[in-house]
Amino acid sequence: MLSATPQRLIFAGFTSVFAAGVWFAGPAGTVEQAQEVQVHAVAGTVSWLEGSGGNVGVCAGPDGVLVIDDQMKPIEPKLVAAIESISKAPWRFVLNTHFHGDHTGNNATFGLRAPIVAQANVRTRLLDDKGKNGAMAASGLPVVTFEDGLELHLNGEDIRVKHYPHAHTDGDSVVFFAKANVVHMGDLFFAERFPFVDLDGGGSVRGLIAAVDEILKTLPDDVKIIAGHGPQSTKVELAAYRDMLVDSVKLVGDAQRAGKTLAQMKQDKVLSKYSSLAWQFISEDTFLETIARELGVK
Ligand SMILES: [Zn+2]
User: Which pLDDT score is estimated for 128?
Assistant: First the structure.
């Protein structure tokens, strides 16, 4: 039996880092560890904010403000100031793309400003997460939950929120802005780096591929993509990420069929063609371990 320990250790690493309130350096040029928040206008009413944790989406207009994800606790004053630099209008909803602490770290206070909306499994996992990130305050729990999706009608946009089961976690949502032609992918997309796939949180590499495949079919060619982590991207870049995922699973599967153990695969560096996507949290070996564990490699 392949031990689940490596993935658990990785996840523990994520959560302990979150709990410590620090973030990690991404590849050169990103500001994930930044103590400042950068605001990027995307199109129409939609902006994204880069700071400490997952990328935040903002839809601001005459109806008020929708905030998508809320990063980590220490950045709160700067994140609020950055959102208010876009619009001082009242907040209407806060949406969590999934339960991870680098996307829900300010739920407790943001939930006092506007109702938190999320897929039902996000609420369940935040309630169950006492041993990992610490208990979420009642004000930080989603109060509007859904199973498969919902639409928000704000600021002239019909904002479609769709759930993809068993991808990065089991509670992921992707947010589509049809008029602005923008999509916020949550952590279904780590731009320019290997993804973290939370197998212990209901995620699946093959489920992630299925989700990205489905999303790619629906996106216009000129869509602007907000990644969960990493820079704003294009559909071509998302398609390349999908191809990398498919090829990585094939490479590990081929090695498995050739009778290789995980240790041998590491020695053979079966994912070395993608070594440039390694970053502080997800090394080539870490991503290999995740795929191998999912495929049942010995
Ligand atoms: Zn995540």
Answer: 85
